[in-house]
Amino acid sequence: MASPDLESPWLSLSSTDESFRESFNIRMEKGNTADIFPVLEVPTSSVSYKCNIPKPPPLPDKACTKFKYQKRLVDCSVVPKESKDTWDKLFKEAHGADVYIITEDLSCIPAHSIFLSIASPALGNILQQSKVKDGIRYIKIPGVPCEAVYVFIRFLYSSCYEEEDLKKFVLHLLVLSHSFLVPPLKRVCINYLEHGWLTKENVIDVLQLARNCDVPRLSFICVRMVVKDFKSISSTQGWIVMKRANPALEQELVEAVVEEDSRKQERLRKMEERKVYLQLHEAMEALLHICRDGCRTIGPRDKKLKGSQVACNFLACKGLEALVRHFSNCKARVPGGCVHCKRMWQLLELHSRMCNEPDICKVPLCRHLKEKMQQNSKKDEAKWTLLVSKVITAKKALGPFSARHAGLS
Q1: What was the pLDDT predicted at 196?
Q2: Could you tell me which residue ranges the TAZ-type domain spans (predicted)?
């Protein structure tokens, strides 16, 4: 924290000792309980209106929200289940099929060229270039299991699939949907991968596949998962294979982990720094509260103090009260004295720099310290200016409805 050094010498203010002591009324009085304020009750009217006013309509049902209404509109536009069943039946029975799709294990899946061309422009181009033999076109889809190709072609017909098939072949289906330009199936695969399917064992494989299939959001999720659990993921078989086959990706992930760790350390440092500034702000508010209103057994001489009061809203009051008591009685109060007195001098100096009304301010030495600022060196003045700006920023960050401001009302 860029604050003035507590060990730096302070200006001699021996002539102001009595001024500080005379500003406070420090005593203990027993007694009086806190005032009890009457609770304001809302008066009720005895007048009743006997007009023939119809009853208002009932409130809309909870289900009739904007979201639900939009959902019903979307559901109305969905293809009926009967139509899907018809297209699914057409694919399974392969009646009038004019295309055979050859898979990795040389199996043949019959299909209809018109469906394939409409559902997938890429397949339509392949069909136009394929050779016709006995009225049948033959195309090959190698590199993926036959079952995955079957699920893929079925989706082109009816957008239907079984959950078990999707779980088993989701990576193959993602590749097929990307390669043959089938956005609906690609969205289904991405959604499934993003919601619960990723594990530390497969995240590296999914990351590489997401990069190759142009899925930036899924890639980002994978990278965040690696950064979050780097120790476990870096010991998996997928990481070992990736390290050997794609060292550039390994370097990128390691750098991401290092960068995230640096950001985390920076966030912690800023949080601790902000905490200190907030404590100083609370001390400034508590000091003003004690000098203006008095608190428990300490305060200005023109206030009648009560020995027993409810808990104070200013969190720093208890510690500041003890500090003021010590400062008023300490024989080493002059600069260069005890540590507690130095802290009190620092609070008084900080307040004087933040106070905009030194002529009417009730904090001791406020005006005197403000006049002494001109004697400070440029280096000390720069430190104080930075400290004041940090405390003011922390104060603004609390907002107008902060619990800390509740005590000001």
Answers
A1: 77
A2: 271-369
